């Protein structure tokens, strides 16, 4: 057992977690994310720069590839990392989530989770 250090608790040194934000996710035939909308720009959080393509393959404001058709605002998932499930608080308000680490177009590593009770997707961390 470790003895108490008697040091005062310093609330100013705590960092809050990023709150989850709702995103739109399209899944492939296996149920893994293939397109994600709502993660924003990798550096600025500005998803408004992703615009519809005019058909000639032009690029966006700063050389970003524009998406096509119904994919306006969506980012392509380039790779799937770890996948895990969390089931907790069954005695209170149950939490059932499937987490998926993805690499999206532009190089951002994103942790998504699907709320298995509602079917909604959230981004936990960018």
Strands, helices and their partners?
Blueprint: E1 21-27, E2 33-37, E3 74-88, E4 95-104, E5 108-115, E6 121-125
Antiparallel strand pairs: 1-2, 1-6, 2-3, 3-4, 4-5, 5-6
Would you write up a description of this structure?
By secondary structure, the chain is an all-beta fold. 0% of the residues lie in helices and 40% in strands. It has no helices and 6 strands. The protein has strands at 21-27, 33-37, 74-88, 95-104, 108-115, 121-125. Strands 1-2-3-4-5-6 form a 6-stranded antiparallel beta barrel. β3 and β4 (95-104) form a beta hairpin. 16% of the residues are buried. The model is unreliable at 41-70 (pLDDT under 50).
For the report, how would you describe the main beta sheet?
Answer: 6 strands, antiparallel, barrel
Q: Calculate the mean pLDDT score and round it.
A: 75
Helix content: under 10%
Terminal Cα span: 37 Å
* Parts with pLDDT < 50 across at least 5 consecutive residues: 41-70
From N to C, what is the helix and strand string?
EEEEEE
Determine Rg (CA atoms, Å).
19 Å
Classification by helices and strands: mainly beta
DSSP strand tally: 6
Identify the overall geometry: extended
> How many helix segments?
0
If strands are numbered along the chain, what order do they take across the biggest sheet?
1-2-3-4-5-6
Strand portion, in percent?
35-45%
């Amino acid at each position: 057992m470790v003895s108490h250090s008697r040091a005062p608790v310093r609330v100013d040194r705590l960092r809050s977690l990023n709150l989850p934000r709702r995103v739109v996710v399209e899944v492939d035939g296996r149920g893994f994310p293939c397109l994600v909308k709502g993660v924003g720009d990798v550096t600025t959080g500005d998803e408004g720069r992703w615009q519809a393509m005019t058909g000639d393959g032009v690029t966006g404001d700063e050389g970003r590839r524009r998406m096509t058709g119904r994919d306006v605002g969506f980012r392509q998932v380039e790779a799937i990392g770890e996948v895990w499930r969390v089931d907790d608080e069954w005695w209170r308000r149950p939490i059932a989530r499937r987490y998926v680490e993805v690499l999206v177009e532009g190089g951002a590593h994103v942790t998504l989770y699907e709320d298995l009770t509602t079917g909604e997707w959230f981004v936990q961390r960018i």
